[in-house]
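I am still getting used to backbone structure tokens and would like to learn alongside you. Label the sequence line and the structure token line clearly, so we can match residues to local backbone shapes. Would you write everything just below, so we can both look at the same thing?
***
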Amino acid sequence: MKIADLQIHQEVIGEGEPIVMLHGWGANISLIRPLGERLAPLGYRVYLLDLPGFGQSEAPPIAWTVYDYARFVLAYLDAHGLAKTHLFGHSFGGRLSLILGADHADRIQKIVLANSAGIRTPLPWPTRARLTVYKRLRDGLRGVGLKPIADQLQAWYNGRYGSSDYQQISGVMRATFVQVVNEDLRPYAARVQRPTLLIWGDQDTDTPLWQGQYLEQTIPDAGLVVYQGAGHYSYLDRLVDATRVIDYFYRQA
């Protein structure tokens, strides 16, 4: 289907209360389908989609912000005639869910955040110092007309210190990644207006458990379930348990 002039890949399964499932950065439908397939027979109509630039969906024409992605999700709801829906957001999908839960709560019933991103991790001081020196040198070279050398320095620095997510993408999605990861959504978390269930793995190294604990304290109506031994994909590591607790949460009045 086409949404916002982009060709989007989706799957819709089951009948009943709607759930829109939003995957993490660099992921696609295949990593949320196992949970969706378990929820659908329990009385839900589950909407699975590859977000723009991921899986089989077309990339946006220019670099998007996390707010552009949130607007896209609203357009997706409109395209399916969903006045209100449950949300499930993993990692990057959690970022979008925080924004939607804060600014568009009238479109949301309940939210499940699995190992959600959205809180910027403070950089250790050696990293901050290195980054400061690098930026001053890069901008100084550009300032004196040595842009080719500045560009070479930037390419070297990104290759040496860029994250694995950054290294694996290019073009518009790399620029999108930079804009997305630099957004700190803590103010949005404090304004989420819908009941929220947080699912986390205590061995998550991408979005550490302290971030889930922070969100539990910050979101006005939130509870945290921690799975011992589970990692960043805690809902897959404990698929049976996660299905049970999510179904119970969505069904409660």
